[in-house]
């Protein structure tokens, strides 16, 4: 089979190799999947650039890829609830990888059945992005997906990306009033996803996160680069909670200082995703019921994974970048 790998840190897309390797065999508790679609995640590029090399080093050659949708080929011993031919979506551990391939191994505890009406590309798009949106909303107290949060004013910064487009839909299900910030080319998309107010970040109003209706925010989700709390503190309600979905060293330090500070009336915190099969099932059910829809930016063939990475680095995506596996060879 073909898969994509790299043998060193740094180098970005130029370090990726499209090579022939044996089809893996599932061990106990694992499934072998024939991959149909893989969702690209920005963190995969950061890991290749050495994000965790000092405390969680990779074994080279390493094949990236965590969010996959495909068909069950075979089962390892002890696997229950699945059978060959099942259409599924899976989350592979980020340090195990292997999703950028024609066939991939996934732990049965990280796999759920795919709703028949949902395509492989759509299913793959809501794994890590869905986890992040659902879990971050819960972290700041937005737990209902059937109303009940009508009293909340929410701001989503960088709402047109893979996480932001899902988060917007989930927060709207809670009943909250949602103001989003994005580039001018994505304003119509945000309106189609039912944002109540849309700010162009290149305008004065967008740069200061000022609600057109004069609302002050109870919750702020930052899906973009780190934004200092001082940049929008004037727009916040007392006791507002601000959550950074892409933690950096700077945001981690700010969150630590904020936690022990007695002066700030607002809470700044970081989000860290965890794998949860039930959350993946929830996202699949929401998508199957038409309550959440996938937003797909561009699709690339697996052999063009480098182009997908380059496109991701431009930071101009609306929704998710998808890789489609090449026609599989015979097993």
UniProtKB/TrEMBL annotation:
Pfam families: ADH_N (PF08240), ADH_zinc_N_2 (PF13602). GO terms for molecular function: oxidoreductase activity. Gene3D superfamilies: Medium-chain alcohol dehydrogenases, catalytic domain, NAD(P)-binding Rossmann-like Domain. It comes from the Eukaryota. SMART domains: PKS_ER. CDD domains: MDR1 (cd08267). SUPFAM superfamilies: GroES-like, NAD(P)-binding Rossmann-fold domains. Residues 11-323 form the Enoyl reductase (ER) domain. This is Enoyl reductase (ER) domain-containing protein.
């Amino acid at each position: 089979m073909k898969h994509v790998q790299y043998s060193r840190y740094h180098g970005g897309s130029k370090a990726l190799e499209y090579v022939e390797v044996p089809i893996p065999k599932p061990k106990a508790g694992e499934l072998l999947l024939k991959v149909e679609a893989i969702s690209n995640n920005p963190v995969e590029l950061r890991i290749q650039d050495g994000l965790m090399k000092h405390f969680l080093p990779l074994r080279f050659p390493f094949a990236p890829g965590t969010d996959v949708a495909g068909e069950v080929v075979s089962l390892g011993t002890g696997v229950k609830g699945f059978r060959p031919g099942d259409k599924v979506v899976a989350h592979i551990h980020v340090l195990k990888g292997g999703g950028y391939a024609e066939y991939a191994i996934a732990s049965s505890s990280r796999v759920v059945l795919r709703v028949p009406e949902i395509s492989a590309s759509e299913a793959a798009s809501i794994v890590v992005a869905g986890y992040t949106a659902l879990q971050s909303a819960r972290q700041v107290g937005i737990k209902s997906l059937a109303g009940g949060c009508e009293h909340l004013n929410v701001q989503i910064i960088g709402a047109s990306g893979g996480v932001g487009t899902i988060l917007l839909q989930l927060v709207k299900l809670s009943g909250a009033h949602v103001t989003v910030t994005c580039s001018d080319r994505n304003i119509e998309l945000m309106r189609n996803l039912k944002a109540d107010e849309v700010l162009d970040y290149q305008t004065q109003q967008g740069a200061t996160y000022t609600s057109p209706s004069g609302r002050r925010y109870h919750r702020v989700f930052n899906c973009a680069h780190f934004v200092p709390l001082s940049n929008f503190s004037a727009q916040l309600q007392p006791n507002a909670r601000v959550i950074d979905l892409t933690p950096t060293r700077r945001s981690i330090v700010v969150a630590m200082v904020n936690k022990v500070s007695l002066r700030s009336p607002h809470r700044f915190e970081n989000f860290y995703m965890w794998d949860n099969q039930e959350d993946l099932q929830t996202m699949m059910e929401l998508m199957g019921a038409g309550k959440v829809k996938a937003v797909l930016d561009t699709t690339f063939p697996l052999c063009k994974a480098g182009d997908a990475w380059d496109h991701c680095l431009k930071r101009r995506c609306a929704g998710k970048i998808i890789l489609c596996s090449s026609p599989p060879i015979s097993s």
